[in-house]
Amino acid sequence: MGTGGRGVIPARSPVAHQGTCVAIGSRAILIEGPSGTGKSALALELIDRGARLVGDDSLLLEGRDGALVARPHPQTRGLIEVRNLGLVTLPVCDEARVALLIRLDENAPRFIETAQIAERAGCALPMVRLWPAAAPLALKAELALRKYGLPSGERCTG
Questions:
Q1: How far is Cα 103 from Cα 69, in angstroms, rounded to an integer?
Q2: HPr kinase/phosphorylase C-terminal domain spans which residues (predicted)?
Q3: Using CA of residue 7, residue 25, residue 56, residue 110, what is the dihedral sign?
């Protein structure tokens, strides 16, 4: 997303956001959905495949230079809820540029031709809705990132 030749887009103040986020290489996936749809479970599957946790259930989102940046919320930094086990501490990525929003949705379409667009913290993101019970969900999320995600930005820090 360019600045339209008008200079640098100023950073916006971080906003608290309910969602889960993992970084895969230099791009992050923001995962949203109703309670109990498997946001943390999808994050764990992606972490098992090499992703890094940014935050679970509570994040700070900030528009910066035309990109959406996700950071862990200080009160939940490094924690992820593992159903039947409780809160587990994991290594955390302190900041990542979000390239894709995945919405876990039982009414997700069977096929899509393009990603939808959603706005978070003043930034437009490609959004793909995935049916939460349709395995292999982590592989679908990675494929969606590859096909619809914004291009690579800066590397995950932390």
A1: 18
A2: 16-89
A3: positive
Q: Any idea what the Cα angle at residue 130 is, between residues 129 and 132, rounded to 5°?
A: 135
Count: domains in the chain: 1
CATH of the domain at 51: 3.40.50.300
Tell me how far CA of residue 21 lies from CA of 10, 35, 70, 127, 136, in angstroms: 23, 15, 7, 14, 18
Whole domain around residue 55: which residue ranges?
Answer: 15-146
Answer yes or no: is 89 within a domain.
yes
Mean pLDDT within 88-105? 97
Q: What is the pLDDT of residue 52?
A: 98
- Ramachandran region of residue 55, left (φ > 0), alpha (ψ -120 to 50) or beta? beta
